[in-house]
């Protein structure tokens, strides 16, 4: 009976743990698309990424040419991403995190939502140019 209780408790714990994590979703080579097919220059793409991040409370910082690092701090959680970009594409790649249970390519499920929001924000800012 005791073994059955322990097994049931472990199964429940595993189920809840599995529900709170998901595979890390990176954005790879998303196209830079401006209004009416307009070609954007480096500074315009950079500015669009910075505006999108700031609007979503990401702290955005240049880290060399064609690279922005975004940091999002929510309560006790921190997510850090690299955003390499050019005039034709950008990517959003996981760099590190705090209190998001990242392990073996898995992370707290909210992280992917934050990345989706950032992607939508960047695309919106690009389309306004």
What's a quick, concise take on this entry?
With 129 residues, this protein is α+β, with helices and mostly antiparallel strands. It has a single domain (23-127), classed as TATA-Binding Protein (2-Layer Sandwich), CATH 3.30.310.80.
What are the key terms here?
129 residues, 39% helix, alpha+beta, TATA-Binding Protein, single chain, two-stranded antiparallel ribbon
Question: Explain this structure to me?
Answer:
By secondary structure, the chain is of the alpha+beta class. The protein has one domain (23-127): Kinase associated domain 1, KA1 (TATA-Binding Protein, 2-Layer Sandwich), CATH 3.30.310.80. It is 39% helix and 33% strand. The protein contains three helices and seven strands. It has helices at residues 2-19, 42-55, 110-127, and strands at residues 21-23, 27-31, 58-62, 67-74, 77-84, 89-98, 106-108. A five-stranded antiparallel β-sheet has the order 2-6-5-4-3, with helices on one face. A two-stranded antiparallel sheet has the order 1-7. β3 and β4 form a beta hairpin. α2 (42-55) packs across α3 (110-127). The longest helix is centred in the N-terminal third of the chain and has 18 residues, at 2-19. The radius of gyration is 19 Å and the shape is elongated. The protein starts with a helix and ends with a helix.
């Amino acid at each position: 009976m005791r073994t059955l209780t322990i097994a049931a408790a472990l199964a429940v714990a595993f189920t809840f743990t599995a529900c709170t994590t998901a595979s890390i979703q990176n954005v790879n080579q998303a196209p830079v698309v401006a209004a009416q097919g307009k070609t954007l220059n480096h500074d315009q793409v950079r500015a669009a990424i910075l505006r999108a991040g700031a609007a979503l409370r990401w702290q955005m910082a240049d880290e060399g040419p064609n690279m922005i690092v975004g940091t999002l701090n929510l309560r006790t959680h921190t997510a850090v991403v690299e955003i390499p970009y050019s005039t034709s594409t950008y990517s959003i790649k996981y760099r590190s995190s705090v209190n998001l249970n990242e392990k073996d390519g898995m992370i707290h499920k909210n992280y992917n939502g934050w990345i989706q929001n950032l992607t939508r924000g960047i695309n919106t800012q690009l389309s306004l140019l």
